[in-house]
Design goal:
The complex is a heterodimer of chains A (194) and B (412).
Chain A lengths: L7 H9 L3 H22 L3 H18 L12 H24 L19 E2 L5 H9 L3 H12 L4 H8 L3 H30 L1
Helix pairs in contact in A: 1-2, 2-3, 2-4, 3-4, 6-8, 7-8
Chain B lengths: L2 E2 H11 L8 H17 L1 H63 L3 H19 L4 H19 L7 H52 L4 E11 L5 E12 L4 E17 L11 E22 L4 E32 L5 E15 L10 E14 L5 E11 L12 E9 L1
Antiparallel strand pairs in B: 2-3, 2-10, 3-4, 4-5, 5-6, 6-7, 6-8, 8-9, 9-10
The chains are: A mainly alpha (194), B alpha+beta (412).
Chain lengths: 194, 412
């Protein structure tokens, strides 16, 4: 059997028709993308594939409901956005179900002034992930949602069932923590190297 | 250029994609397949359920039919009994009338003349008219007769009237009581007749169940998870321990087939081959031991174990292999354009005997439900859906030998 390389639109149509080879192509081409998103939410790698699969189940189930944009050139980009949203929701649901409620510690605005930290060299993703893993769960989640997924604080507060102000505080804290973590590791490596 | 840390993290993460983990799709599709397989098995279950329901309906229908003759019988008895009752009524009323007439001291000759006409009217009116009418009408001819024929004997007809009026009512009352007792008698008769019939029946069925041993032969098409039809043939002998419970054993030729799909993908390397599916066929002699419970005289259910002595066991493996195919086509500029494709192909080959499961015996749990029908005085035919569950999975590929089918049985 010769497998043709199908165009994205054809793969999408095949998935709507529940064609298995199209689903396979879809799975294989977006697995990495979704895994990248999922890994930002979970530390546990064994859970992450399960979450990716859960996401794909939802995608295949609702792919007929995906509305392609008017401009066909934006199709793939819009589809990526759509599946990214499904993935992040799936991950949040998972986090929510594993914890009855978020631990909301006493929040007060940070007294420390926000200092700009500039990076000297390119940080690799694995280093970034390492930094993210050092953040408390809620901070990490809010950082993810706000900075990377681009949700507004209002949406985040609804999603996580926390006050909007808390969302803001968590974000500030996470940023600060990341900066300190980064400076520390940088210093650490310098020390090690020097 | 220095970049702000957060900004850097954001862009890095947004553009980041993980690598595809080999085998992820296979794991995913296997999960899906498992879900679907559970679904695929549903037709089998629904088929079994339909058979069960139909046989149930048929059974209920049959039992209703068999009840009907009893109703008819009692009706027949009822229609017959009034005649007998009437005859008896006549006798009794004769007697009572005799008593009355003797008490009124009417002549013997008059009595003979009077009786027929009186009873005609009495019989015709007894059931149709209320008590008072009967009295009036029966009284009338009596009075006439008395006045006509016994003028010289009885001096005062008016006296007789008064004397007679009461006896007639007592006659009617007495008759009513009599008919009631007659009714009771006839009902007892009916019971007696019924019990006679019943007495005859058990003796009849005793001769039927004369022997506790019952041999039968059967043919049983069955189907495993590969949806291939296999035929089983057998002989079984059952022994009735008690009325409802029997134990049966026998010997049968059984053939079971199974398939196992591995959901393999095309091999990654050019020379590799991936096992895609296994088809196995096991033939052997099956010796069952079964306890059968008769739910009714038509319906029975069986549960038991059986051992299959394997005579022949063959396994066919299907592999996915990669093959290179070259396709050449001349181009306009005179050169040849040749393209090579890697083609995944299916290839079947029998499993070497050395790696075939060495088990010589396979154990099964058997469940069945049967419906029996008489086709002649001695012979029964039975339809019996059954399910055979293996005690353990077979061979190293964990083949599932679960199979079910329909046994068609003839008793003799």
């Amino acid at each position: 059997m010769i497998k043709k390389i199908l165009r994205f639109e054809e793969i999408l149509k095949g998935c709507v028709k529940n064609d298995n080879s199209c689903k396979e192509m879809m799975y294989k081409s977006f697995y990495g993308y979704l895994m990248g998103i999922i890994l930002r939410y979970t530390k546990n790698t064994s859970d992450s594939e399960e979450l990716v699969n859960d996401t794909f189940i939802k995608i295949f189930k609702h792919v007929a409901g995906f509305k392609p944009p008017a401009n066909p050139e934006e199709l793939q980009r819009s589809f990526r956005g759509w599946i990214a949203q499904i993935a992040s929701r799936t991950a949040i649901d998972k986090i929510r179900s594993s914890k009855a409620h978020f631990y909301v510690d006493e929040l007060n605005e940070d007294q420390h002034p926000v200092t700009q930290v500039s990076i000297a060299s390119e940080l690799h993703v694995s280093d970034i992930m390492n930094l993210l893993n050092h953040l408390p769960d809620t901070q990490r989640l809010v950082f993810n949602l706000y900075e990377i997924e681009g949700f507004a604080h209002e949406e985040i507060s609804k999603m996580l069932n926390i006050p909007e102000s808390s969302s803001r505080v968590y974000l500030t804290r996470s940023k600060n923590k990341l900066r300190t973590l980064y400076t520390n590791t940088l210093v650490g490596t310098y020390k090690k190297n020097g | 250029m220095d970049k702000e840390l957060i900004e850097h993290i954001t862009t890095q993460l947004q553009n980041h994609e993980e690598n595809y983990a080999p085998g992820a799709w296979e794991r995913f599709s296997k999960k899906e397949e498992d879900k679907r397989r559970g679904f695929v098995l549903w037709p089998l279950w629904t088929a079994a359920a339909i058979i069960f329901i139909i046989s149930g309906i048929f059974f209920i229908h049959r039992s209703e039919e068999s009840q009907q003759p009893i109703v008819v019988k009692s009706k027949v008895q009822n229609t017959e009994s009034p005649i007998a009752r009437k005859v008896e009524e006549n006798d009794h009323s004769n007697e009572s009338f005799n008593q009355v007439t003797t008490s009124t001291e009417i002549n013997q000759i008059e009595k003979q003349v009077y009786i027929p006409s009186y009873f005609k009217s009495l019989d015709s009116n007894l059931n149709l008219h209320p008590k008072q009418d009967v009295i009036a009408q029966t009284y009338q001819p009596m009075e006439e007769l008395i006045t006509d024929k016994t003028n010289d004997f009885i001096a005062k007809p008016a006296d007789i009237k008064t004397v007679d009026a009461n006896p007639v009512t007592t006659i009617v009352q007495a008759e009513k009581q009599k008919t009631e007792t007659n009714k009771k008698l006839s009902f007892e008769d009916l019971l007696a007749v019924d019990s006679k019939v019943n007495q005859q029946h058990p003796t009849h069925s005793k001769t039927d169940q004369h022997s506790k041993w019952q041999p039968d032969v059967y043919v049983a098409p069955s189907m495993g998870n590969d949806n291939k039809l296999n035929m089983n043939y057998g002989f079984s002998l059952s022994y009735a321990i008690v009325n409802k419970l029997s134990i049966s054993s026998g010997v049968s030729y059984a053939s079971i087939s199974s398939t196992e799909s591995q959901n393999a993908a095309a091999p990654q390397s050019l020379s590799g081959k991936n096992l895609e599916s296994i088809n196995a066929k096991v033939q052997g002699i099956n010796v069952p031991l079964e306890v059968r419970y008769n739910i009714s005289d038509k319906l029975y259910t069986g549960i038991g174990v059986s051992a299959l002595a394997v005579l022949n066991n063959s396994q066919q493996n299907t592999y996915l292999v990669n093959q290179v195919q070259t396709l050449s086509s001349p181009l306009a500029n005179g050169t040849m354009d040749s393209k090579s494709f890697i083609v995944a192909e299916k290839q079947s080959e029998p499993q070497p005997t050395s790696s075939i499961d060495p088990d010589k015996y396979i154990g099964f749990y058997n469940f069945s439900l049967g419906y029996k029908r008489k086709i002649s005085k001695k012979n029964n035919i039975a339809i019996e859906p059954f399910l055979r569950l293996p005690m353990k999975t077979f061979s190293r590929e964990n083949l599932n030998l679960t199979n079910g089918g329909l046994r068609l049985k003839v008793d003799f």
